[in-house]
Amino acid sequence: MLVIVELSEGVRRFRELERAIPGISQRMLTLTTKRLCRDGMVERIAYPTIPPQVEYRLTETGHSLAAAIGALADWSRDHKDVIASARQRWDVEHGVDGTE
User: Fold this and answer.
1) Strand, coil or helix: 22
2) How many CB atoms lie within 10 A of CB 4?
């Protein structure tokens, strides 16, 4: 999801994606971008330069997924207080300290 969210802002080079996503390894980003390309969410454009320059952008399908992710993020923000209250009630009812 983080790659989709980042690419929803526009075209990115591999290193830009790597810097924008905290804690992601080069290998994991490579695997993720390959999977997203295979799934038709992301387009990979390689330019024949030295060193090779590669850019990634969302496809139309990827943009529709980004919209859905955005809606989920909006919903989460709108309901964060309700969720926090529900968690607190549950923790009290079940004798949990809330750190698990």
Assistant:
1) coil
2) 19
